[in-house]
Amino acid sequence: MPKVRVSPGSLDYLKQQLSGYVLLPGTPDYEAAVQIDNGRVQQQPTVIIQANGEKDVVTALRFAQKEGLKLTVLGGGHSATGYCLNTGGVVLDMSLMKGMVLDAKRRTLRVQMGALWSDVYAYMTNSGTGLIPVGGGCLTVGVPGFVQGGGFSFASRSYGISADNLLSLKIVTADGKPRHISEASKSKDELDLFWALRGGGGGNFGIVTEMELQVHKPNTPKMFMAQIRYPVELAQDVIGFYNNWVETLPNEMAVYGIWGPTAVPGNPSKTTTTFGFTVIFNGEFGIGLKLIEPLMKRNPSYANLNHMTLPEYEEMVGLTTSVKGRNAYIRAGVMPPLAWTSKAIKVLEEYMGNRPSQDSFMVWTHLGGKVAEVAPGATAFPHRKARFVPELKSIWDTPQQARANIEWGFNFYQALEPFFTGSYVNYIDPLLTDWQKKYYEGNYKRLLEVKRKWDPKNFFQFQQSIGSKFQPDTAMPLDLSPLNRTFVD
Ligand SMILES: Cc1cc2nc3c(=O)[nH]c(=O)nc-3n(C[C@H](O)[C@H](O)[C@H](O)COP(=O)(O)OP(=O)(O)OC[C@H]3O[C@@H](n4cnc5c(N)ncnc54)[C@H](O)[C@@H]3O)c2cc1C
């Protein structure tokens, strides 16, 4: 346990200033707060501050600056690398701040930054308006990290990435000032900051306290959803077909890929390995069913069809990709249209076939549609022309299993890398070389300028924050210390 470097007097003063709470090491609330989705992340901040409002956020920032401590912000805690936490500094936990206000007429939702997507889906369902957010496919992902990094949703081909639906936000910048910024901001610096916060990734420019999001009336109150699975022997035929077929689909349909363990139908306690697709169609059931006929004709081992609202569907499947505190090594890349070539599928077949842990899996997002209608430099998210974003999750339980599973994930990534054109900052990855270019392409230069303007002393920093020179050591055998964390400051 790290020694508390803050004097008891300072802590007492901090507590008096806050309407939220101070959590210290050794207490159950502290231990619960540092347990994030990826159990491999083990960090020990000196103090966790649970903010209860914007004033508390300013207090926390001033406290960290006065004490000379690092500060990171904890949203939903789904950073694959745990950049929301730190050791020795302050973690600002936003989880008390879950307020939401829907303006059904303007179709806007104001949401505080402690909200998870599960909170938003429940709120939207209870509103009875039928309106939907462009939210995460995982219930426990937090709104703040998701939107700032871009945010791919099952509805993105219809409505753009989540950041395209960000209308304004409230942020406390490194100078301790709360600001409300949007496209309507008068100053060029604020416009630049708003640009950077739509794809630049969380943790870089300030503490976001609230967002105003555009929400949408879907084309039909209920959508068509399907889960289709195939035996792995059919991969070349089916994924090869899918690669071309998705180019013919309307924007209203998204067809995500998955390869991994699935429950044996009729015997759910047993699993088998399959691959397949998650289909979401923002329209009539019958039209959706007709559109997927070519997939249904290719001998699936099973198909589940659903007709429900998007929030209801998220509530049903929204924990599929969470590792729920187990150890995970997560790698990902961005692929252009038609990238699932026979060679790329062969890599999938080989690595999914020899994975050391049967719980490991690969999923991929299907982009295009409205996402591609925005220019790569219009927001900080550059991958507008991407079609697929595969993410592999190597999952294990004991320290003895770590090396085999990490090396498998590393080699799998290396084999797929020739098919990638970049990486997605929300699948943040400490083993990525040249990460500045991979995450941001031509937008990095402007992000650096925004960072220098708004955070000249580099207060908001982590291993892969904007401006960091960090490059990982990828020599084999790999550094197995937690997440290759080598801080550069
Ligand atoms: C199981 C799972 C499913 C996922 N599904 C999807 C998906 O469907 N689509 C998709 O696009 N991505 C998905 N992701 C990736 C996800 O979008 C990112 O991990 C995202 O950054 C998580 O946000 P968070 O708030 O939960 O995480 P956190 O770890 O809390 O935050 C991520 C980063 O943002 C910073 N941050 C958090 N709150 C704030 C704030 N208020 N102000 C400033 N900075 C802040 C943190 O310090 C950290 O650097 C998934 C991830 C997981 C683990």
Short description:
By secondary structure, the chain is α+β, with helices and mostly antiparallel strands. Helix content is 28%, strand content 22%. The protein is globular and about 70 Å long.
Shape: globular
The main sheet orders its strands as 13-10-12-11-15-16-14
Provide the list of bound ligands, each named once: flavin-adenine dinucleotide
Strand content: 15-25%
How many distinct beta strands? Answer: 16
Termini separation: 22 Å
Radius of gyration: 22 Å
Question: Strand pairing plus helix content: what structural class?
Answer: alpha+beta
Low-confidence stretches: none
- The CATH class of the domain at 223-419, by name, is Alpha Beta
Q: Name the average pLDDT.
A: 95
Helix fraction, binned, reads: 25-40%
Number of helices: 15
CATH topology of the domain at 223-419: Vanillyl-alcohol Oxidase, Chain A, domain 3
Q: What's the main sheet like?
A: 7 strands, antiparallel
Tell me the CATH architecture of the domain at 223-419.
3-Layer(aba) Sandwich
Can you offer a commentary on this structure?
A hairpin with a 2-residue loop joins strand 11 (253-264) and strand 12 (267-281). The radius of gyration is 22 Å and the shape is globular. The chain has 15 helices and 16 strands. With 489 residues, the chain is α+β, with helices and mostly antiparallel strands. 28% of the residues lie in helices and 22% in strands. Residues 37, 72-79, 83-84, 94, 113, 136-138, 141-142, 144-146, 149-152, 202-203, 207-208, 321-322, 426 line the site of flavin-adenine dinucleotide (FAD).
